[in-house]
């Protein structure tokens, strides 16, 4: 029974095993069929890969490309693609001429695209082959700006151009205010390509490359050490390093050994090294503490973190000898480049067509045998139009290269790099990308950088310029001169063989150097001619800076345009200008007509005409309403001239009752006040100080200038004859020449700079004075070589010293106190002209004219009925208007309070004689009740005798109304006079 059971169990087991094996084989067969069917349905596209397999970028790039294709074709989107990229790798073996590998791929395999090479030098050769075969060349690490897609449209830079980072670097330089940098770069196409772009970017921020340190790619240690010693002996302390990682590591290691990674130094690395910091040796990172770097910003995403983890695992399995490998942005660009190429191949409907062979003769070269890709133009266009979100960010090709993202600014601290800020085209340097920019394009954050640890483990921002560590002092050239020793004085002690330099300019320079935020050692070196005499020309002294004899020039050196072409000047520390000094001679005491000189004849004439016009306007406005402006004709004419002139001293006795006249008079008082005040000031100046500036050119007088000064050239430009110029060296010699005069072997005037003039006038201000205009000059300044970084700092220190009390103390110590007031700026001797007052006259005339027009308009409106009398001739109507104007206006308030004047005014309104006796003869004595005398009656008849009665023309209605009105008024006047 047991045996039977065992047999049955064995039979069942055998049966189940058979079926399991059968289904397993069936599954394997099915999978193989599916795979073969899929392979039969996809189109293989040959793609070449040219890398330096021994270089880190090549190994990392190849692994990233393989993973990119695997990830893409296994994704939901890529699995439906009919095309599949097939990689054919070639090792360029660090050969610059990597054309052999590319030719093999193009001729034998007819690849549709080439990814690589890794270096810019190799890419320069392969780009030409790609253009010939119309095959896109895609490089994710050739960053040299000299490789341009404009030269070859088939070159696609799937990385950033080195020129895109120069604005970030220049923004850092500008932010910290550094003016000079030294550029350290590798001696190849990659290193040289950035130079023109960086130079232009620095020039835009008023900075420059002071020195270029070129280091060969395979330089030995002695060569690097020698170059670093040269950099350390220079004044510039800001270094920009642009080179490969391997050579850069050597430089920083040796720089630390030489003490060049200490406090005061600034090191800035480009993205060529900044991108690979995480793959450097810890010893190299230790030597780079405090370095600033720039690199493209790659946002941290979940996709990037997952890929980084998978890549490290895969790369460690494939390269077990490489430990702690770190992925950088070049690997991400390689991954995105392969993805973009896979997408573009599918979009271009690439069918893997063979190359079109060129018709050549039998003796063709190996390069001539390369055909032309039929799918190349379509594939190129598809790549340029491909955009997606990659591992490195937004992938988009613009003008043949990857669109530039934001740049991250890093600081090497501890075991790695720390982000301290960002740079974008829109906002410049910002601390956080999440901050929005303002309208002017600046960040709204208070500080644009995070905390920066500079070399030497300090947070203090380096000045970027220091005195070299070799202890060399600045050689300060000073002029040797005998006169005007208050400015510069050189004393030689022959017993001790020492030289002492003192003076106003020297003390100012010492104060300025003490005000600098850093110590600058210097020594004064007198400049003498070869024969040992004094400095003949300051131009020669300043030119010594250009020749390198001196490091600076200090003294009474004027800032001049011609000199600034080869040296740089600081801001001036003295008053600027060239003035003329002449003796004071009071000749006006014997001039009877000196009171006329303060005003020009045009101003005299204009003032007189304006006075008469204002008097006429006031008379017109006051004549009908003011008793003071009435009377005999000769009295009224005299009043027209008298009244406006009396306002000059406010002595007018006539009262003004018209509002229009008061308005005109207010304006006129303002004009008179300003005119008289100006006249008195000018007259006082003319009587006190002689009209001193002689007609030097016309009279051919001798003039003086200081020996060695640029004033001689200024006088030559002013057309002074060189034979009439006499130099002087000391203030005493200048005074002696002036005292003798031009006719006695002296000079008539002196032209010199204001600091010297003030020194002379401080002692002789009672005898000499400044006259005429001040000619433009820029004062005294300190001179430095062209482009010296000391100039901005010294200029700021000059401002600090000149605005302080210390400057006043230095001036008092060397020049003393001025005993004469206004000795350096006497009033101008020019007469006051019409151009200074025409605005006042215009205001007065316009106001008077406006008032006159208002009065005439009102008067004509009241008497317009006379002008409408068509039965009268025009001249008769004008005569009546003039007669009415000459009569009093009894509607005015000035006449309403006097009844007697009203009666007399009525008679006057009836064309009565305006004799002073008429008012008394027209009425009987107020003490009698008798009727008016016959003379009054007859006179009344004469009054009402109208022209129509004699000429047979009946009076008009208006005239009858006027007569009846006049009769009533006369009757009222008679009744009042009779006492009724």
Automatic annotation (TrEMBL):
Its main location: membrane. Pfam families: ANF_receptor (PF01094), Lig_chan (PF00060), Lig_chan-Glu_bd (PF10613). The keyword Acyltransferase does not apply. It is found in: Membrane. One of its GO terms (cellular component) is membrane. Residues 917-928 have a biased composition (Polar residues). The chain crosses the membrane at residues 12-32, 599-621, 663-681, 837-859. SUPFAM superfamilies: Periplasmic binding protein-like I, Periplasmic binding protein-like II. Residues 917-966 are annotated as: Disordered. GO terms for molecular function: ligand-gated monoatomic ion channel activity. Coiled coil: none annotated. The keyword Cell wall biogenesis/degradation does not apply. Residues 473-817 form the Ionotropic glutamate receptor C-terminal domain. InterPro entries: ANF_lig-bd_rcpt, GABAb_receptor_plant_PBP1, Glu/Gly-bd, Ionotropic_Glu_rcpt, Iontro_rcpt_C, Iontropic_Glu_rcpt_pln, Peripla_BP_I. It is a multi-pass membrane protein. Keywords: Disulfide bond, Glycoprotein, Ion channel, Ion transport, Ligand-gated ion channel, Membrane, Receptor, Signal, Transmembrane, Transmembrane helix, Transport. Disulfide bonds join 765-820. It comes from the Eukaryota. Glutamate-gated receptor that probably acts as non-selective cation channel. Glutamate-gated receptor that probably acts as a non-selective cation channel. May be involved in light-signal transduction and calcium homeostasis via the regulation of calcium influx into cells. Belongs to the glutamate-gated ion channel (TC 1.A.10.1) family. May form heteromers. PANTHER family: OS06G0188250 PROTEIN, OS09G0428600 PROTEIN. This is Glutamate receptor. It comes from Nicotiana sylvestris (Wood tobacco). The lineage of its organism: Eukaryota, Viridiplantae, Streptophyta, Embryophyta, Tracheophyta.
């Amino acid at each position: 029974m047991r045996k039977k059971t065992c047999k049955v169990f064995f039979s069942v087991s055998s049966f189940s095993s058979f079926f399991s094996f059968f289904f397993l084989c069936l599954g394997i067969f099915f999978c193989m069929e599916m795979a073969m069917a899929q392979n039969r349905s996809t189109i293989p596209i040959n793609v070449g890969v040219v890398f330096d397999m021994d270089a880190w970028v090549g190994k990392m790039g190849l692994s990233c490309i393989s993973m990119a294709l695997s990830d893409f074709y296994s994704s939901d989107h890529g699995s439906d693609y009919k095309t599949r990229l097939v990689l054919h790798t070639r090792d360029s073996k660090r050969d610059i001429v990597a054309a052999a590998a590319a030719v093999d791929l193009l001729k034998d395999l007819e690849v549709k695209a080439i990814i690589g090479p890794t270096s810019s030098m190799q890419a320069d050769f392969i780009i030409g082959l790609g253009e010939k075969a119309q095959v896109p060349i895609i490089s994710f690490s050739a960053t040299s700006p000299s490789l341009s897609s404009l030269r070859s449209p088939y070159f696609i830079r799937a990385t950033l151009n080195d020129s895109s980072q120069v604005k970030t670097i220049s923004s850092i330089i500008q932010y910290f205010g550094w003016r000079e940098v030294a550029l350290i770069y590798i001696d190849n196409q990659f290193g040289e390509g950035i130079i023109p772009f960086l130079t232009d970017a620095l020039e835009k921020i008023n900075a420059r490359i002071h020195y270029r340190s070129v280091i060969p790619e395979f330089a030995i240690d002695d060569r690097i050490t020698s170059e670093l010693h040269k950099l350390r002996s220079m004044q510039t302390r800001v270094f920009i390093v642009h080179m490969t990682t391997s050579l850069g590591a050597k430089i920083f290691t040796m720089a630390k050994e030489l003490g060049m990674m200490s406090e005061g130094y600034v090191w800035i690395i480009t993205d060529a090294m900044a991108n690979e910091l995480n793959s450097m040796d810890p010893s190299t990172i230790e030597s780079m503490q405090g370095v600033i770097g720039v690199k493209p910003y790659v946002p941290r995403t979940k996709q990037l973190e997952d890929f980084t983890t998978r890549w490290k695992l895969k790369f460690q399995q494939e390269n077990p000898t490489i430990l702690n490998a770190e992925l950088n942005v070049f690997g991400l660009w390689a991954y995105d480049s392969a993805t973009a190429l896979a997408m573009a191949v599918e979009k271009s409907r690439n069918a893997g067509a063979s190359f079109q062979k060129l018709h050549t003769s039998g003796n063709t070269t190996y390069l001539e045998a390369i055909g032309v890709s039929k799918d190349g133009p379509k594939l190129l266009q598809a790549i340029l139009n491909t955009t997606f979100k990659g591992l490195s960010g937004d992938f988009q090709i613009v003008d043949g290269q990857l669109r530039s993202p934001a740049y991250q600014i890093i600081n090497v601290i501890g075991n790695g790099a720390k982000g301290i800020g960002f740079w974008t085209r829109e906002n410049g340097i910002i601390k956080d990308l999440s901050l929005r920019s303002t309208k002017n394009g600046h960040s709204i954050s208070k500080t644009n950088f995070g905390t920066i640890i500079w070399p030497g483990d300090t947070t203090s921002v380096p000045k970027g310029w220091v005195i070299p560590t070799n202890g060399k002092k600045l050689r300060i050239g000073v002029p040797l001169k005998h006169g005007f020793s208050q400015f510069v004085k050189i004393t030689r002690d022959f017993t001790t063989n020492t030289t002492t330099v003192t003076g106003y300019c020297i003390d100012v320079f010492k104060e300025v150097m003490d005000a600098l935020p850093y110590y600058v050692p210097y020594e004064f070196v007198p400049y003498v001619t070869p024969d040992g005499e004094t400095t003949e020309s300051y131009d020669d002294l300043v030119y010594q800076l250009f020749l390198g004899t001196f490091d600076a020039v200090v003294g009474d050196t004027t800032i001049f345009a011609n000199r600034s072409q080869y040296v740089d000047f600081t801001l001036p520390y003295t008053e600027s200008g060239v003035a003329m000094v002449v003796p004071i001679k009071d000749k006006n005491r014997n001039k009877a007509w000196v009171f006329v000189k303060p005003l020009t004849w045009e101003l005299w004439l204009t003032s007189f005409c304006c006075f008469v016009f204002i008097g006429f306007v006031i008379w017109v406005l006051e004549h009908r309403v003011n008793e003071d402006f009435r009377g005999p004709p000769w009295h009224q004419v005299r009043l027209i001239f008298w009244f406006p002139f009396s306002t000059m001293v406010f002595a007018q006795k006539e009262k003004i009752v018209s509002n229009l006249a008061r308005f005109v008079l207010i304006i006129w008082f303002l004009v008179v006040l300003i005119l008289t005040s100006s006249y008195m000031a000018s007259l006082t100046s003319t009587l006190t100080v002689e009209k001193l500036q002689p007609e030097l050119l016309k009279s051919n007088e001798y003039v003086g200038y200081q020996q060695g000064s640029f004033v001689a050239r200024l006088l030559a430009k002013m057309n002074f004859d060189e034979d009439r110029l006499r130099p002087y060296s000391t203030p005493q010699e200048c005074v002696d020449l002036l005292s003798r005069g031009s006719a006695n072997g002296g000079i008539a005037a002196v032209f010199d700079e204001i600091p010297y003039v003030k020194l002379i006038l401080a002692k002789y201000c009672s005898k000499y004075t400044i006259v005429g205009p001040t000619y433009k000059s820029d004062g005294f300044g300190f001179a430095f070589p062209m482009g010296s970084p000391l100039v901005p700092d010294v200029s700021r220190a000059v401002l600090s010293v000149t605005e302080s009390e210390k400057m006043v103390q230095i001036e008092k110590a060397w020049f003393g106190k001025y005993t004469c007031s206004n000795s350096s700026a006497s009033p101008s001797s020019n007469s006051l002209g019409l151009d200074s007052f025409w605005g006042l006259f215009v205001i007065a005339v316009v106001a008077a004219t406006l008032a006159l027009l208002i009065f005439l308009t009102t008067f004509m409106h009241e008497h317009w009925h006379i002008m409408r009398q068509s039965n009268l001739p025009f001249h008769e109507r004008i005569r009546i208007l003039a007669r009415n104007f000459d009569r009093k206006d009894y509607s005015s308030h000035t006449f309403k309070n006097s009844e007697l004047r009203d009666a007399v005014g009525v008679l006057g309104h009836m064309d009565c004689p305006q004799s002073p006796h008429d008012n008394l003869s027209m009425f009987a004595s107020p003490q009698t009740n008798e009727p008016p005398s016959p003379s009054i009656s007859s006179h009344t008849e004469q009054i009402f005798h109208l022209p129509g009665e004699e000429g047979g023309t009946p009076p008009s209605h208006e005239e009858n109304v006027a007569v009846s009105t006049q009769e009533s008024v006369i009757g009222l006047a008679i009744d009042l006079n009779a006492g009724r």
